[in-house]
Amino acid sequence: MQTSLRRSGQQLLLDRSPALKSIYSFSATGYGIDQHRHASTIAVKGSGHLIRKGTGGRSSVSGIVATVFGATGFLGRYVVQQLAKMGSQVLVPFRGSEDSHRHLKLMGDLGQIVPMKYNPRDENSIKAVMAKANVVLNLIGREYETRNFSFEEVNHGMAEQLALIAKEHGGIIRFIQMSCLGASSSSPSRMLRAKAAAEEAILREFPEATVMRPATLIGTEDRILNRWASFAKKWSFLPLMGDGSTKIQPVYVVDVAAAIISSLKDDGTSMGKIYELGGPDVYTMHELAELMYETIREWPRYVKVPFPIAKAMASPRELLLKKVPFPLPNPEIFNLDHINALTVDTVVSENALTFSDLGIAPHKLKGYPTEYLISYRKGGPSFGSTVSERVTGSEF
Ligand SMILES: NC(=O)c1ccc[n+]([C@@H]2O[C@H](COP(=O)([O-])OP(=O)(O)OC[C@H]3O[C@@H](n4cnc5c(N)ncnc54)[C@H](OP(=O)(O)O)[C@@H]3O)[C@@H](O)[C@H]2O)c1
């Protein structure tokens, strides 16, 4: 009985969604269409109209019941905080330990943040975490591959699956997909190509979805300035890929979370659109590193690593990843895919919809958004002086 139900479920999904054939062709990774994960029997129902109560604060009811996939990550904490602050209920699917979502619980009123264990490869569990929602945010993404998860599965396959399930749900009024600035089918980075494929699939399956393409995120838990600062402290220099002239447009993580909220609050104008979210200033990698050094009050020392050498240094991990019988360390500074991405500039395109179309003025990075770096000052937060102070000091 169970088997026949499962088969008919699979057939139904195949009939409805020919696209599944293409994404789930990763059968080598146990991600094939023949897996029983498509045999969902959970009834999914939308929750109908939004019911709003209160003045809009934490103890109000915004009417939004949002399932935030990827809430346990860096951006997730700011998105959950802003959703909870306006009185939304946030369902937090998590796959790791109970610790992965602990910090989110206090962001909302009692019972407003609901962690739910799920398995991203089990369709039933995805349906269960989406069942009561009327909004779905997909913040799942990863900038390196592991033995278990390829770029394509995490950044494309999962996103497409969420869009399909959200459509089938029938009551999801908003779907927001976090992509990346620079996502393109012709990008030198596999992750950015997978993100572009995800955008296309999502807008095909759920045309009312909104796609956000943030630039490199900066904030207390970021994975660029923190890594640079700890590398510079440990080795007394910082490797600059290429000659450090690649342009990027880093953005404050809180602004990106605010853009998501603003899009959810609008009258539907952001539905079906793609936004490129870059900060107010374009930096070369070298200029951004200068900002880091200035804030941690260390004398800047660089080693320029030409791209071919950087790629050669980063390649062994990728070559060995699936060949050795044990997990390899995750790449930090020398991430091959990231090095590939850095071979081209990544800035907001000229005619793109941006923060201003969502009514937001992004913060400059210098100052509060990068203040967390003072924890890297060797003699405590008040230690030392900036480079400009030192130069001025020696002149007198
Ligand atoms: N950080 C940036 O600079 C940046 C820039 C542009 C765009 N983005 C995009 O913005 C989104 C959020 O970024 P972030 O910095 O918050 O990422 P993050 O800190 O790495 O968090 C990623 C989230 O995705 C989940 N995830 C990763 N692999 C998964 C898998 N195999 N199965 C299920 N869940 C998985 C993680 O869950 P676990 O906690 O269980 O691992 C985590 O909740 C991502 O889509 C990212 O591509 C980020």
Automatic annotation (TrEMBL):
Superkingdom in the source lineage: Eukaryota
SUPFAM superfamilies linked to this entry: NAD(P)-binding Rossmann-fold domains
Transmembrane intervals: none
The NAD-dependent epimerase/dehydratase domain, residue ranges: 67-278
GO cellular component, one term: mitochondrion
Organism: Iris pallida
InterPro entries in the cross-refs: ComplexI_NDUFA9_subunit, Epimerase_deHydtase, NAD(P)-bd_dom_sf
Molecular function per GO: protein-containing complex binding
Protein name stated in the entry: NADH dehydrogenase [ubiquinone] 1 alpha subcomplex subunit 9, mitochondrial
